[in-house]
Amino acid sequence: MTNATVNPKGLVFTVVAVASMMSIIGSLGAPLLGTIAQANHVTLSSAEWMLTATLLTGALATPVMGRLADGQHQRRVVLVALGICITGLVIAGLSHNFAELLVGRALQGLGMGLMPVTMAIARAHLDSATATKTVATLSVTAAVGVGLGYPVTSLIAEHFDYHAAFWFAGALVSASWALAYLRLPKTNLPKDREFDLWGSVLLTLSLIGLMSVLGEGQVWGWTSALSLGIGTSSVLLLLVWIKFEQKQSDPLVNFQQSKHRAVITADISAFLIAISMYLYIPIVVEYVQLPKTTGFGFGSSILTSGLLLLPLSIATFVSSRFVPMVAKHLNSRIIIPIGCAVFATGSGMFAVFNSALWQAFLSVGIAGFGAGFTFAAMPGYIVRSVPASETGGALGFYQLLRSIGLSCGSAVAGGILAFYTKHGASFPTLGGFRCVLITATGLLLVSMTISYFLLGDSGTGEELRPDTIAVMEENAELGATGFGLDPE
Predict the structure, then answer these.
(1) Is residue 236 included in any domain, yes or no?
(2) pLDDT band at 273 (very low <50, low <70, confident <90, very high)
(3) Pick from 443, 457, 392: which is nearest to 250 by CA?
(4) How far is residue 110's CA from residue 92's CA, in Å, rounded to a whole number?
(5) For the whole model, what pTM was predicted?
(6) Same domain for 435 and 322?
(7) Domain termination residue (choose one: 247, 282, 315)
(8) CA-to-CA distance for 114 and 77, rounded, in angstroms?
(9) Is the CB of residue 408 less than 8 Å from the CB of residue 277?
(10) Under a CB-based contact definition with an 8 Å cutoff, are residues 21 and 82 in contact?
(11) d(CA 209, CA 222)
């Protein structure tokens, strides 16, 4: 519903500014892991929780905030989420130990769910043509912002204490909060849908439990009473949540929209590729920062590791531009397998060839090219396969699986590194890094195979509808950023 009193240019600038700040939040993780591990006297595997906590909060926030923003609370959701992000940044900036830093990073993760909210605001208050351009701009901001945010925050952390990066981000997010307060309009939408509170609680408890076991199972012991108890309880809670959602008239996640073969393909692929993402990206960044005394690290600066993410974002953006063209002229069934194969090439290459810094940059560029192909194509499969009235819910479930996959990848990477960290040592062995990269490569090859055979003939010979291509193009820039599109 377009609001005639809204200044279109001011609104576009505001939502893009908010999205840019969320890119900053996303760029405060991987390049700082090594420095934070040393400064707080924790192992590198424990430092991985700085990523996992943020991603987990983002995964939980995405469906909840999307639902809250589906009615009259869009402006309030943005202001509250940004306020909590600022609180998290202040806590991280003032932190004296790793526990305080972890709390701050977890609170910052709430902002990861704001991307679909900004898109919903654009669609509610702008005319169709302007809204479409704004959504595409928001997507570009997400991808390019992360690529630029990494080196900027890394540069600050290198020349000052790492806490300065959080204060810098806090100042920018505070400015965006003020802008949102002044510029975001109230939304005159129909009465809000009923909020699925118990569904949210069940999902939150189950995911926190599963992430804890994945990340700390090596420390606790995989067969210990604690690991088995929390793991079993979390799986049971997850099953209860699925059953509960299927019985709700207005569920947090509508599983009925994920029965089509193409939708299942996109969902499974999104989950596996997202896991691989965070089995790969932080590991390469951490590897190049390891001191040369380890016998295999490059001893690179925080800034260099931040620059490592530039080829990822650039390659993701460039490759994703080709997806609609490939979908129009070639068999759309091969798009996800091609992307998985290219991504796996980049990941597997660095698992084998990791003796020079240029190999890391090349590997990341190749991986980004593959990621852009996969993540740009998957929403198109969903849009083509479900009724228009169910597109939002189907894409919402896809994004939830993708967010959970990122969290799982970070937690699993931490668990593997912990296994390969000798007692009393600060850093894992080379075998630990290779094991994580090989695991990522294997999951990508599994996704490649599943996506090809599961999609079957449903992905061939069909001319893509204009709205399918539009969603592909709107999502094309997202690539490796971890953000997604909820079109309602």
Answers:
(1) yes
(2) very high
(3) 392
(4) 14
(5) 0.78
(6) yes
(7) 247
(8) 8
(9) no
(10) yes
(11) 14
In tens, the pLDDT along 89-140 reads: 999 999 999 889 988 998 998 887 787 788 778 877 888 778 767 776 776 5
* Residue found under tokens 């118990």: 198
Are residues 323 and 178 both part of a single domain?
Answer: yes
Do residue 112 and residue 228 come from a single domain? no
- Identify residue 148 by its one-letter amino acid code: L
* Same domain? 159 vs 202: no
How many folded domains does the chain comprise? 2
Which amino acid does the sequence have at 3? N
φ/ψ (deg, to 5) at 308: -60, -25
**Is residue 1 situated within a structural domain?**
no
Kindly state the tokens that stand for 391. Answer: 């597109």
Task: Please indicate, yes or no, whether residues 211 and 309 belong to a single structural domain of this protein.
Answer: no
Tell me, yes or no, whether 3 lies in a domain.
no
- Structure tokens, 84: 């909590």
Residue with tokens 């290198």: 158
* Distance, CA of 439 to CA of 272 (rounded, Å): 11
Q: Where are the beta strands (DSSP E) in 43-198?
A: none
Residues 365 and 467 in one domain: yes
> Average pLDDT in the 286-290 region?
90
Taking alpha carbons only, the member of 455, 201, 436, 481 closest to residue 337 is 455
DSSP state of 223: T
**Angle at CA of residue 139, ends 280 and 145, nearest 5°:** 60
Q: Where are the alpha helices (DSSP H) in 420-459?
A: 430-455
Q: Which amino acid is at 444?
A: L
**Domain end point (choices 231, 247, 263):** 247
Paired tokens of 46: 């424990």
Per residue in 350-363, pLDDT tens? 999 999 999 999 99
Instruction: Taking the CA atoms of 471, 145, 49 and 282 in sequence, report the sign of the dihedral they define.
Output: positive
Same domain, 207 and 331: no
- Domain hosting residue 206, numbered range: 197-247
What angle (nearest 5°) sits at the alpha carbon of residue 220, between those of residues 214 and 222? Answer: 60
Which pLDDT tens digit goes with each residue over 215-248?
Answer: 777 678 778 889 899 989 999 998 998 888 888 8
Cβ pair 25, 45 in contact under 8 A:
no
What is the Cα–Cα distance from 182 to 10, expressed in whole angstroms?
10
Cα separation of 113 and 23, whole Å?
11
Contact between 106 and 98 (Cβ < 8 Å): no
In contact, 394 and 255? CB cutoff 8 Å: no
The reply to whether 240 and 284 lie within a common domain is no
Using alpha carbons, list the distances in angstroms from residue 323 to 274, 278, 470, 472, 480.
Answer: 19, 23, 11, 8, 15
> Does some domain include residue 488?
no
Pair 21, 139: CB distance under 8 Å: no
CATH, residue 254: 1.20.1250.20
